[in-house]
Amino acid sequence: MSQTIIVAGIGTEIGKTVVSAILTKALKADYWKPIQSGDLDQGDAYWIQQWVKHPNLTIWPSTYRLSQPLSPHTAAELDGISIELNQFQKPASSQPLVIELAGGLMVPINDQQTNIDLIQSLDAPVILVSKNYLGSINHTLLSFEMLQQRGISILGIVFNGPENPSGEKFILNYTQLPLLLRVNEEQKIDDSIIDHYAQQFHL
Which CATH superfamily is domain 4-8+18-198 in? Predict the structure, then answer.
């Protein structure tokens, strides 16, 4: 099995899809989003298809496609289904695989389990995406501590959006994680922007 990386964020609207696109391009990887909540016509897989140009890209179908843009457990309930952890089967890709989660680590996927349980079941290392806003240091460190507590390997951190030098310095000092990439706040994301950052990314 080729290398698998899970892209996890400190919350929602953090930039996981942009970072996933960058990794997919940089690693010439396949892409999989296990749960897609809402935006079924132009969801995250759609944007990966638009932004990532490599000839062997496979976008694997989501295990659960939920009609409402809500927390997965709520969206699933509204759709009359239950998300079961044993239904997630990691695609047998011959290429590296980038997996993008829906929301933050502790977002519920059913009545008992959260995204972090899904990460453990998929048994792959994580890249943590952080974005600067009031409270983001706390959210980043809590996410780091939860991953550590569960024994999940963290490859490093990506900072996305407006730069916050003092906050980023503290996070890196506290976690001792390598900084894998800094993605600036871009007015428009397209394949050329993704290519630009993909050339900067190295594990």
Answer: P-loop containing nucleotide triphosphate hydrolases (3.40.50.300)
